[in-house]
Prior knowledge:
By secondary structure, the chain is mainly alpha-helical. The protein contains eight helices and no strands.
Amino acid sequence: MSQEQLNAESFLSMEQEVNLNQLLPREITIGEALEATALTSCHRPVDYSDAAAIEAAEVRATGRTTIVPGGVAAAAQSAAIRNARLSRDEDKTKLGEILTDASSKLPSDRPVTRGDAEGVIGAELRNDPNLCTQPGGVAASITAAARLNQSHSFPTSHNKQQI
């Protein structure tokens, strides 16, 4: 075999290795879990409990103590206030409109943990008049992501707690 053929084979092996690494499982981020909510509850109008859960998720993703001006949580709060004033569901802002591409709207993001799930569940519960979470809602998506992160053996320290 010539040196050129060996170099070409080495390059192909490296390229295949990189592609395989892209296929390996990785932890689900808070932004991705919010995007999952956009898919599962896309037609549901945003309410105060959704806005609170989204705020809790954004604060945990960014590590800030307040929401990001113009961010996902700010949009959710505005939508919840507006939706409370409207009577027809057709006129209300939906979760899908707020949470689509949430990962790209967050200034920073990180993998979901059990603590994140607990915080988001608490926020959603405290702000729901019936003290319950919504099936397929923000808390449900964050919790599902935390469970998936915990159940897989990812090489990080984020998921060492049991869910």
